[in-house]
Amino acid sequence: MTSAGGQATDAEARDAAFAETVRRAGATIGALYLLTPDGQQLCLDVLYGAPADFAVPWTRIPVTAPAPVADALRDDRVVWVASQEEMARGYPRTAMALPYPLALAAAPVTGIRRWGALLLMWPAARPPYMTQRERGHIASSCGRLARLIEEAVDHGAFPVPGDRPRVLAPDRVRRSAGPEMAAADFVERLPGGSCALDLDGNFTYLSAGACELLGREAGDLLGTLPWQSLRWLDEPVYEDRYRAAVISREPVVFTACRPPDRWLDFHLYPDVSGISVRIVPSGGERPPSPASPYSSRTTPATRAGRLYQLMHLAAALTEVVGVQDVIDLVADQIMPAFGAQSLVLSAADAGRLRITGYRGYDPESVERLDGLPLDTVFTPVGRVLRSGVPAFFADPEDMRRSYPEASVVSGKQAWAFLPLIVSGRPVGCCILSYDEPRVFPAEDRAVLTSLAGLIAQALDRARLYDTKRDLAHGLQQALLPRTLPAVTGLRVAARYLPATRGMDIGGDFYDLIPLGDSAVAAVIGDVQGHDAAAAALMGQVRTAVHAHAALGTTPDQVLAGTNRLVTDLCPDLFTSCLYAHFDLAGRRVTLASAGHPPPVVRLPGRGTRPLDVPPGPLLGIDPEAAFPVTEIPLTPGLMLVLYTDGLVERPGADLEDSIIALAHHLAQADTGDLEALIDTLVGKAGTSWQRTDDIALLVLHETTPHP
What we know:
Layout: H1 4-24, E1 29-35, E2 41-48, E3 60-62, H2 68-75, E4 79-81, H3 84-90, H4 92-97, E5 102-110, E6 114-123, H5 132-154, E7 166-168, H6 179-189, E8 195-197, E9 203-206, H7 208-214, H8 218-221, H9 226-229, H10 236-248, E10 252-258, E11 262-271, E12 274-281, H11 304-319, H12 323-337, E13 342-349, E14 352-359, H13 363-369, E15 372-373, H14 381-387, E16 391-393, H15 396-400, H16 406-410, E17 414-422, E18 425-434, H17 442-479, E19 490-497, E20 508-514, E21 519-527, H18 532-550, H19 555-569, E22 575-583, E23 588-594, E24 600-603, E25 607-610, E26 615-616, E27 629-633, E28 639-643, H20 655-668, H21 674-684, E29 695-702
Parallel strand pairs: 2-7, 23-26
Antiparallel strand pairs: 1-2, 1-6, 2-3, 4-5, 5-6, 8-9, 8-12, 10-11, 11-12, 13-14, 13-18, 14-15, 16-17, 17-18, 19-29, 20-21, 21-22, 22-23, 23-27, 24-25, 24-28, 28-29
Helix pairs in contact: 1-5, 11-12, 11-17, 12-17, 17-18, 18-19
GO molecular function: ATP binding; kinase activity; metal ion binding; protein serine/threonine phosphatase activity
Organism: Streptomyces dangxiongensis
EC number: 3.1.3.16
C-alpha cells in the first residue's frame, strides 16, 4: 500500500515533469491524457495554460475517435498539425470547436505499455514545421512521463484521472497575488494600460480610466467576468474574442457599444499570466450594432463556449455507429459538460421504454424504471414524449408535486428529461440527473433541448445499424464453422473478427476439413465485396472446397474445381483462397494459392518467415486457370499461420513489409496458448481498436512426439 502522501508525491512529480515539458517545448497550452484501464478512452488528467472549462468537450476521448491524441496513441507516432487549415482538413470536428489560428502536436506516452498521450499547442506564428530536435525532445519527455507513471504504479498508485482535470498555472514564478501584482504585470505588458484579465476571464485590475469608460467602479468588477458584470458585453461574439486570445496567444481587437451610443475598441494582449486589455473610444466607421441589451428576449445569449461545445457534440453524434456508441458519448461527453452524475437512456420499443444504457443508478432502480409504457404517468417521461417539450426539476420537492413516487425510486436530487423525437415519432428519452439540487439556467436548457434532437437522430440511426449488424453477423457466423474438429498431432485455433466500422457483411472465411485418420486440409479465403452476395458466395466456396477435398483430389485440383464453380456462379465477384493439405502419415504439407497472401511458417530453431507459395489467379477470373503447388516437410514443431489481408493491409504501408512484420511478431510470441497467440498477433498488427476490413486467422501447430 502507498500512503496518501506517497500518491501525492507521485502526482506532483508527474505534474512538474509535464509542466517542464510544455515550457521547454515553447508551447502555450499543454494537456496530458491517460488511458483508462479498459483501454477504450483517453481521459484528461492535467491541463496547462488554459481554463478547465475550455477542455470540457475533450475531457474524455475514445481511442477510436478522429482526434490528434487518439491518432497519436493508436499509431504510436507524433501527430503534427501546422495550421488551422490543416486542422480543418484532417480533423474537422476538432477544428469546429477550436476555430482559432494555432499549431499543435500530439505524442504517445509509452513505456512498458501505452499509458496515454501528450498534447501541445502553439500560436500560429511559430514555424509551420517541427525540427528533429523538437521531435526528439517531445519523445524523450513522453518517455520520462511514462517512467513516472510506471513508478507510481510500482508504488501501488495507478493514476486515475478525476472528474475534472488538474489545472497548472504557467506563471508560478510571478503569479498574480492581487490587484497590485496584476497592475505590475499590466505595466510590463502595455504602456498606459487599462485593465487586466486572468486566463479564466476574470478582471484582476482596472485603472481609473477603464472604470470611467466601462461606467462601473473597480470594486463592482474585480473578480467578475466581463460578460456577466457588464450586460452590454453579454454576446457570444465578445466571449469568443477572449477565447481566441487565450488559445491563439495572439492580440485580438473588437468593438462594442456601451449603451446608449458610446462605441469602444478593446485591444487584448495575452501572455502566459493573463490578458492585458486596452480600452479606447472607437474611431472611424462604426460596425453594425449588436443586439440591443434591452431586447424582448427573455433568456440571455448562449455563451460562446456553449456554442462551440454544442457544435463539437453535434459533430461527435454524427460519427457514432451503434447504440452503445451513443450511450458512451452521452455518458463521457454530455454528462460532464452539464455536470450530471447519472444518466438513463431509453429507447421506444413496442409501446414501451426499454433502458438501453445507464450510469450512476443501482440495478434495482433501473429494473423498476425499465419497460414503462410510453404514456406512463409514473415519471415525467410520458408527458415529455407526448408534448415533445423537455422537463427540468430543480429539486425533489419540485418533482414530488407532480410525480410523488419518481423521486423516491430515482434517489436523485435534480433531473433533466429530454424527449428524443424524430419526425414527430418518439424514439426514446434521455434523463440526466444530479446528486444535489440544481437550477437549470436558460442557456443550459436551450443547449440541452438542441442536443435532444441530435441524440434522437443518432439513437434512431444507431438502432437501425445494430439491427442490420446483428443480422449480418448472424449470417456470417452461420456460414463459418461452429467448432474446429480435433486432429491428432495438431493443435489448431481460429478467429474471425468483423470490421469495427460499417454495416457490411464480411467475406473472409476459414475451414479445417478432416480427410481420414492421417490427413487434414486447412483452407482460408476472402471473397471480394462486403454484402449479402459476397456472404452467399463465401458459403458456396466453402461447400465447393469441402466437396472437392472429400474426393481426395490434390490442392491444385481443389482450387481448379472451385474456380470453375465461382466463375459460373458469380462472374463479377472474385475470391482469394489458400489451401493446405497436411499428410500426417507422409510428414508433408502441400499448398496451393489463388492470389492469397502467403502463410507464415515458424520452425523450431530455424526461424520464422513468410512461406514462398507462388500464387495462381484469383478464383472467378479464368475458368481454365492452373494453380502451382508448393510442398514442404511436416517437421516436428512446425507452426503455420494462415490469415486474410485485413490483418496486414494498412493505407500507405507496403504489404510485403507488413507480412515480414507479422513474421517477426510470430517469432517473438509465446506459442503455449494459441488463443493468446492470436490475441498477440491481432494486437501487434494494430487492429485491436479499429478495423476497416474483417480478418480471419487459422493457426496450426504440429505436436506429434518424435524420437
